[in-house]
Amino acid sequence: MSRLTWLLVLSCLVSLVWAQREPVPVQEEFQLDNGDGILSLLKTAVGLDDNRQSPESESPTDAKTPSQEPLRIVAMGDLHGSYQNTVDILRYMGIVDSDDKWIGGKTVYVQTASAQYGDVVDRGPDTIKLYALLQQLKIDAKLAGGEVVALLGNHEIMNLAGDWRYVTTSDIETFGNRTARQAAFDIHTGYIGTYLAKLPISARVNTTVFVHGGIHPSFAEGGSEGLNAVAKGMLPGYVKDPRHGDTIGIFHTLGPVWYRDYALEDEDVICPVLDEALLMLEAERMVIGHTVQANGRIGHRCDGRLITIDVGIGVAYGSHQAALEIIGSDVWAVYAGGKRSKIQEPLKRDEL
Ligand SMILES: *[C@@H]1O[C@H](CO)[C@@H](O)[C@H](O)[C@H]1NC(C)=O
Ligand SMILES: *[C@@H]1O[C@H](CO)[C@@H](O)[C@H](O)[C@H]1NC(C)=O
Question: Ligand 1: which residue has its CA nearest to atom 7?
Fold first, then answer.
């Protein structure tokens, strides 16, 4: 054979091997920081990740592929600066042990006040400890195959923008003084600010969308990832100049961290709006924090398509303990001591 033929054969072989290589992890195909590997987990969960494993490469005995294992998702609402109440719940949910170390395995833990349902900060003195805990859990969860997704809430954004209306004196004291706290929340240089700047505003895990306040259809067009990209782009400008820096109102009353109508408006009026948003977000249900449930119970509206999980975990709200647990299509509210109560599955509009 001529040298040219050999070269051709060789390049064919190389491209064949190249085509068979391990696919790039899903998260690297995205520019968005949606809580680091959450997108890859999600894609595996909904079976979108079809180039990860070709059907031929699956042996018939190996029926238990990751995409068939139901995902365990645990979500908590606003923590409002209460470290003790937070770890109490994480312990009875089997997410951390008595030393606050991750034992949640592959659980996806969503904090809607860091997912946190937004509000990790304010109204209590444990800001630094809570952020440190969440950051540590995020690292440890990843090693165990799990995931911690912390979402931005309105209070995180207020603190970034220098709006301290709800900040307690005891909170400022844990930083040393006002100047030190201000520096910590600087979006470009602060140890908390730079962390918050990376957090997403919403997350879709399998068929559930999590957000602090609620995603109105006017913010749902690009899906959860699109919304995160827009918010991330808008945040530095808003923080610098809250009056002019947000030209689309994403950090204002109807925006995803402040919106309350899904939780408060009449269901007749608001469920069709929610359904429109869910359709755009390609999700079955929305889980929100932000609006406190006065009875301390996880609530649901619109036939389970909306779940309200801000039960008032903070001391200022009565130290209610509850977490939401989703396993496959089963949804539970889990209260102090691990007491479980099943929540209705979401009914699709055409099943009503
Ligand atoms: C504030 O606290 C920081 C760090 O503890 C310290 O270095 C600084 O001198 C303090 N500033 C004032 C005005 O007290
Ligand atoms: C994703 O959600 C669907 C519908 O709720 C459920 O049937 C399925 O088990 C979930 N997938 C995983 C991996 O949990």
Answer: 180
pTM recorded for the entire structure:
0.79
Supply the mean pLDDT for the chain: 80
Ligand 2 shell residues, CB under 6 Å = 45, 70-71, 206-207, 284, 328-329
- C-alpha distance across the termini of the chain, in Å: 71
- CATH number for position 150: 3.60.21.10
Query: 284 - beta bridge partners?
Result: none
Is 3 inside any structural domain? no
What backbone phi and psi angles, to 5 degrees, belong to 231? -60, -45
% of residues, the chain, pLDDT over 90: 55
| 12 occurs within a structural domain | no
Measured from the alpha carbon of residue 179, the closest ligand is 1
Residue 19 lies in a domain: no
Range of the domain at 36: 24-48+67-351
122 occurs within a structural domain: yes
